[in-house]
Write a structure and sequence with these properties.
- This protein has helices at residues 2-25, 49-60, 82-91, 112-121, 141-152, 169-190, 206-211, 225-234, 259-271, 279-301, 306-334, 343-360, and strands spanning 39-45, 69-75, 98-102, 127-130, 135-137, 156-158, 161-163, 202-205, 241-243, 251-253.
- It has 370 residues and is α/β, with parallel strands linked by helices.
- It folds into two domains: 2-22 and 278-360, no CATH class; 28-275, Spore Coat Polysaccharide Biosynthesis Protein SpsA, Chain A (Alpha-Beta Complex).
- A seven-stranded mixed β-sheet has the order 3-2-1-4-8-6-9, with helices on both faces.
């Protein structure tokens, strides 16, 4: 067990060093006065009445010419008053660039990918931005992306996503843990080997989306619209994918409200992994999973063997030490270093949560929205 843990930890340490270097290589970016790029913002939603009011308020205050972007809200079979909220905004004179469409069944099915695909199909501008109904953004969001596109001309742009903390310690834990995901996401992008992205803040060329067939081939998975599309883009020769480390580009989203919702979300993320084809993503996911599974197995075996328990505890502490430098950098970027007092307990719990999420991912109880 000592040899297995040591080998995995050495590989994991190299991975963290690689991601840390990528984070450092990715320069901080801030917007200029560029307004040349034109965007279609596509937002699928189901039963998001309360969140839509907040989202519309933030979209309305975007500091960008209204003739250079449109907002396409796609209703995926809502049973609440969400569509009426949007219709009311249109009647009250919300910007003329707002559209509401109702998703139609595709091969007898609905869901987020179907809604996104139909929203993208009616988009009139060359750059698509996807986000979610429970998200908010700053007023320089589009201006930041326009400036980045003018400078780097990317085919896909991976934006940062941050969890909002609502004063609950459970929210703080989620915000800190999600910061580690952001670090890994932008770290890999900084090394020009992107392995993750988040559909809550993703920019891409509509032309290339159509060329790769959109989400075709991945509709059997409940989530993964973002990751599967990233892998399709990576497979195209000459495609430029960049990460945007900018506070102006941040999207803020809500953490889950309960442990049940949290594990449903994370098991859903884990379940789509069986469909990945990108070697770098598979290798990274396999290494991270293996390290955490090995630590948990060693902890369980340590109940019966004291030396194994010692090995497990040393590995757990070593892993936490390896993760910390990147977490330190990310929390600085997000201005959330006040959350670091939670890090020791998060580091101790993390392998258990990963193993539980992997276990739950084999059960088809989670969907995008019911």
């Amino acid at each position: 067990m000592w040899i297995v843990l040591l080998g995995l930890l050495l590989l994991y340490g190299l991975l963290l060093l690689y991601l840390y270097r990528g984070w450092e290589r990715l320069p901080l970016f801030w917007h200029s006065g560029a307004v040349g790029a034109k965007f279609s913002i596509v937002v699928p939603f189901r039963n998001e009445e309360k969140n839509l009011r907040v989202l519309l308020a933030h979209l309305q205050q975007l500091h960008y010419p209204s003739e250079s972007f449109e907002i396409i809200l796609v209703n995926d079979n809502s049973t609440d008053r969400g569509p009426l909220v949007i219709e009311g905004a249109l009647k009250l004179g919300f910007k003329q660039n707002l559209k509401l469409i109702n998703a139609q069944s595709k091969n007898g099915g609905y869901g987020k990918k179907v809604a996104l695909e139909q929203g993208i199909a009616v988009a009139k501008y060359p750059y698509i931005i996807t986000t979610d109904a429970d998200c908010i953004m700053g007023r320089h969001w589009l201006q930041t992306y326009a400036s980045f596109i003018e400078t780097h001309q990317p085919d896909m742009l991976i934006g940062p996503v941050e969890f909002v903390s609502n004063g609950r310690i459970f929210d703080d834990y989620q915000a800190l843990e999600f910061g580690s995901i952001l670090g890994a996401t932008l770290g890999a992008a900084g090394m020009q080997t992107p392995t993750m992205c988040n559909g809550a803040n993703l920019v891409f060329r509509k032309e290339l989306f159509e060329k790769v067939g959109g989400y075709t081939g991945n509709f059997q998975y409940d989530s993964g619209d973002d990751m599967f599309l990233l892998h399709k883009f990576k497979a195209q020769p000459g495609v430029v994918i960049r990460g945007c480390k900018s506070s102006g580009a941040l999207i803020y989203t809500q953490p889950t409200k309960s442990f049940k919702d949290f594990f449903k979300q994370r098991s859903r993320w884990a379940a789509k992994g069986v469909g990945y084809t990108d070697i770098a993503t598979i290798a990274t996911g396999a290494l991270v999973a293996s390290v955490n599974v090995a630590i948990v197995c060693a902890l369980v075996a340590g109940i019966f063997h004291q030396a194994t328990l010692l090995a497990a505890m040393i590995a757990l502490i070593a892993k936490g030490a390896m993760d910390f430098p990147l977490i330190w950098k990310v929390t600085g970027f997000l201005r959330k270093r006040s959350l670091l007092w939670l890090y020791p307990s998060l580091a101790l719990m993390y392998p258990l949560y990963v193993v539980l999420s992997l276990f739950l991912s084999v059960f088809p109880f989670s969907r995008w929205k019911k």
